[in-house]
Amino acid sequence: MDRIHLRDMAFHGYHGCLDHEQRDGQTFRVDLTLHLDLRPAGQSDALEDTVNYAEVFATVRGIVEDERYDLIERVAERIAQEVLTSYPLVQAIDVTARKPNAPIMGDFREVAVEISRAR
Fold first, then answer.
1. CA distance 112 to 8
2. 49 vs 33, 46, 90, CA distance in Å?
3. What is the pLDDT of residues 9-39, one digit of tens each?
4. Does the structural domain 2-118 have CATH classification 3.30.70.1120?
5. Residue 28 in contact with residue 10, Cβ under 8 Å?
6. DSSP codes, 21-49
7. Residue 102 pLDDT
8. pLDDT per residue over 79-117, tens digit each?
9. DSSP character at residue 82
10. Which of 35, 72, 96, 103 stands the most exposed, by the fewest C-beta atoms within 10 Å?
11. Could you tell me the CA-to-CA distances from 48 to 38, 67, 107 in Å, in that order?
12. What's the CA gap between 88 and 119, in Å, rounded?
């Protein structure tokens, strides 16, 4: 299966279990891998034979910036559900939702959740 990657997308969202996370929000970073057959697009050079990744970006932005959840696990699941529903050429998806400023007392780079879903 071929793949389209959208890497390190950054959004300001209001996800988290703590009051200040829901009130102030923070940066969330998202990586996607879309699994689909790119042969038709490679042969036709036509956008309708692939997935418009600008539209996928807008879909992810809408979920991360406009919806609110306690867990990044739910954010990742919503992204996977919506992409599989909205883009029928996508056969499977890998989603990594990253929270660089998770409320952890200590030195760390980020907290990340990675899921894979398929039709």
1. 12
2. 17, 6, 11
3. 999 999 999 999 999 999 999 999 999 999 9
4. no
5. yes
6. HHHH-EEEEEEEEEEE--HHHHHH--GGG
7. 87
8. 999 999 999 999 999 999 999 888 888 988 889 999 999
9. H
10. 103
11. 11, 29, 46
12. 9
Contacts of 88 (CB under 8 A, 6+ apart): none
Q: Which of 2, 89, 99, 108 is catalytic?
A: 99
Through-space distance between the first and last CA atoms of the chain, rounded to whole angstroms: 14
Q: Alpha helices of 1-119 — where are they, by DSSP H?
A: 19-24, 39-44, 53-66, 72-86
Q: In what order do the strands lie in the sheet with 26-36?
A: 2-13, 26-36, 92-99, 111-118
Structural domain boundaries in the chain: 2-118
99 catalytic residue (yes or no): yes
* Nearest alpha-carbon partner for 6 in 87, 110, 85: 87
Yes or no: say if 91 and 1 are a contact pair by the CB < 8 Å rule: yes
Entry pTM: 0.95
Which amino acid makes up residue 75? Answer: V
